[in-house]
Amino acid sequence: MSHQPYEKWLLSEEVISQQDKESLKIHLQECKSCQDLHYAWQAVEQEFAINAQVEPQSGFDQRWEIRLEKTRETRRQKRITVSIGITLGFSLLATWSILLADLTNFSLSSFLGNLFATLGQFVSRIIHILRGVESLFRAFPLAIPISAAIGVSLMAVVTLLLAFWTASLFKIYQPKQGVILK
Ligand SMILES: [Zn+2]
Question: How far is the CA of 149 from the centre of ligand 1 (A)?
């Protein structure tokens, strides 16, 4: 039994006529060898179809991985920014407190104690430092106008730092907007 041109038709992508299709169908019913070839080739084509579906899936995973990495990086920058902001905020509050205490001459330690009572060790450290400054004022009255000047300078520096921090905050968030726009 000749398997041609049936084998050729089975393995090629070429479109065959309706008449050829009929004769192929008849040959497949009679010929075990061509039947096996037909099913084997169908299995291979199915395999290709599945792989073609899997391919973009893995590409999606990669994109998702990159997005996750970007999200992590953004969160890390946010955490850094927040901690810098908190530190600067405390510095600003402390500086203003020094200035306020200079001007009104009320008890620095009780003022700060009430203000920061619940804010833990970080604040108690500030109070400790400021108590030292307060006792310095008592010992040397001349230190008051001098420290007032220092306080004003400090506040100016901290305000500048805060402005710089705000500017860098905008810089950090701008690339994120760019990614969303894409
Ligand atoms: Zn055959």
Answer: 104
